[in-house]
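[audit] Reproducing an earlier prediction to check determinism. Same input, same settings, fresh worker. If the tokens differ from the archived copy the diff job will pick it up downstream; this log only records the rerun itself.
[audit] input (975 residues):
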Amino acid sequence: MSAVDEKGREELKTEKFIASLLGGVSVLAVSSAANAQAGIEQQDSSVETTASQVGDIVVTGSRIVRNGYTAPTPVTVVAVEQLQATAPGSIPDGLNQLPQFTMSSGTQNTGNQATSPNAGNYLNLRGLGSIRNLVLLDGQRIPPTSFQGTVDTNVIPSALVSRVDVVTGGASAAYGSDAVSGVINFILDTGYTGVKGSAKVGISDYGDDLSSGFDIAGGFDVLDGRGHVLLSYDHYQRDGIPRNEDRPRGGDWITQVGNGTAAAPYRNAGPVFYQTGTFGTLFPHAANFSENTGNPLAGMHFLPDGSLVPFDPGVTPAGSSNVGIGGDGSPSIGKTLTGGQVTDQLFGRFDYNLTDDLKAFAQLSFAQTENSFVTIGSGTQTNAFYIFADNPYLPAGAAALLDAYAGRDGVWGTADDRRVGGGRIHADQPFKEVVAQNVAYTFLTGLSGSLGNYSWKATYAHGDSLLRSSHSGNFYQDRYFASLDAVRDGSGNIVCNITLTHPGLMDDCRPINWFGANSPTEEDFDWVSGVSKYRVSQKMDIFAAELAGELFNLPAGPLSFAVGAEYRKQKLDQVSNSDPSIPTSTVGLRTNVAQTINKYNSTNVGWAQGQYDVKEVFLELAVPVLADQPWARALDLNGAVRYTEYSTSGGVTTWKAGLSYTPIDDVRLRYTISRDIRAPTLYELFAGDQAARGGFFDAHSGRNDNVITLSSGNPDLKPEIGDTYTAGVIWQPSFVPGFSVSVDYFSIEITDAIANLNRDNANEECIASNGTSSLCQYIIRPFPFSHVPASDNFPLATRVLPYNQALSSMHGIDYEFAYRMPVTVGALDGDLRLRLIGSYVPGRKTRTDINAAPVQNANVGVNAKHRFNVQANYIQGPWKLTTQARYIGETERTRDRTVFYEEPTVPSVVYVDVTVERDFTVRGHDLTAFLTVNNAFDQKPPLIGNGQPGQMYPTNQAVYDVVGPYYTTGIRFAF
């Protein structure tokens, strides 16, 4: 980018920022001049009072319905107002700010493939994986929206959500499979009457990542008050950040180098460029591509004008063999930093009281989300092809030198005669863009009523989701390699060699001059490029019935129960135009280096079809043991058991036991122990082969290069088992009104955990065993492990497979402090509300193989030991100021003392968010104007080099903010 362009860009950013800021200030000013309302209502967010609601009683974490009953399961309850105050973009964005959520996937951390659900908002509770937390809408299971079985929470009708209950303990016995790490239950305000809505716009401090959204919801009675109608519509869109280079460090080409030894520790270095490819085509030095040993063209590359000149590899960092600091190499460019998204949601519900004791309801929700991002702007084909002496695009002198080359063995008549190995970074190709569209609808209907002291409910739900994903700009590999092999025919015309050696196989082949940046034409790229597509359809039908009430009275109170049954059928159907199990022929492709190729150079997804049936019955009891005793204001036992039978893996029993003890009015103790399960998803069971291409560091060959990773399903998988313990205390001292504290210890151990084999760990173990480990079979090399030189033996592919031999465990403490107090200091009279939510996790172990020792990952990498949020709300009349500080603690790079880093720790970060709100009225209608600044002090993310030069931004985007300060202003209204 030129200096003039950079200056213009900065001016545009400044203009956009000023316009956005002035817009927010003007809204607040107008509201100030309007007729103000003195006072503002806000839901009390204390840990006890929000756990239940008066009226239609909802007891979070339990199916028991009884006034005054409190379940022993730890729950974090967050009102929508709190989430909107710090994350006005969306409710899931607000949840991701909580310490209990980490490593969630979505548009903030796009990948370089389209083979995983990076597009959307997939919440990850405790970092145990989105697949291990159950997402509910009003207690109902939401059908999966991704082939991996997870739920994009952007499909939830946010305009009518009143709060979110996060159950931070195992809850499979109460809610069903998948609730190993907990439950995220979005609670709708189904009784809402009136009209409400909001409109908002946002922009980053850099003048990009524009966002806008609006929503409206209405509820009204019909049919003489016996019926109630509820409707809502939500729209939100956000542009994202187009390129890594649009943020500091994104264009510094920082990459992790070294091999982790004391002599060559891992370190961040930049600018780092490939020594195996350039924008105009490179014939690498023999040190980077042993095929070029002794080759007269080794170490030459093409300038933009097509001239062939010596290549400066820069300084090769110790422990690396295919990247250099400085020099003539090239990086990958153009990758999207954060993806764009457009979301539309429609929701409707009708309730009708057939009699005083019988109610019917029907509910329909529809959501469509579209997410887009560029995986890479310059396809990397490093050490990927051969060029032969008869290629007419070679300069005459270079062709003559190559024509006299008898290969590195010096023997004529072998395959490596008259050829040179090459690599190219295709910065001149159209950017490779992923567009993922998710359409989901859910229909729910049922009857509910009462029979004496018992309440009952019977429901039917149908869910249908369709994910369409396309990845444009991918090269047809057979066409690409054929186009590289240009020759002259008998008439002197430049043609593809394959048309002469194998007529009829690819007669439309287009010979392409790949020498020099911008040498290929638009028509050339059109011929060699295609769109990799796949479609995932999932359907779910659920029949459920439940009966709850009080069986009889005990001395301490009624014995309450809930019993029910559920039948669930789920079906997966995935189709693709790039199934890697269908071989792509290499006949006639003498330029191809690899022994096998896929249809496209990235995003090759297989087919998958499967279904299963699930039958469940459950029982839950709440037993009051003591009440109103001098030493026991209340002592309650809670127990639940559920039997689940899967058509694929048989039956399994889950259970929970809990105790809640209130020795005095100010203190409540709670304890739970549970056995939970997560059943394998349909995709884990029945997925066909799929292939993804991405960076891989192989310490054996010393190379960091692209490799194909093959994966597939495993029909022999069984449910994984989770054992959870929680013990906690809640203190609400009567002598300090408005103050409450909760502290809960938790321990989760998942055995027979379903996990894909970690290819990096498998490779490390294979290398450590000198090629004898059974895991070596998953690292597919061109030669035996002992081959010399090892630099020739970079893997052709790696294979991962889900299996039941993994283990994951963690323990820690969740804590929450809340204090509400009046402020009576002259002009500052108002209401102050403080809240601290935190999580301390000193233990987190994983094991990738049944024979491997567990590895301690607590406070390593992204697994910070300390995470907490501090929030302060100050309310004075119509004004409200909210500030929040989000702390992510320092972590170690590794706990393996045989592995060395130049910087052994990742520093802590603090993000500060500020929101100003102003209530006012217009013609008797309530409105609130707001202005929010996220990451107000521009906290930069820690520097974490990863991937290959330019492919990934140098940090972990699933944990750390890369957007910078972000301003959102808007207005909310209620009529």
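[audit] rerun output stored. Observation attached for the diff report: The two ends are 51 Å apart (CA to CA).
[audit] end
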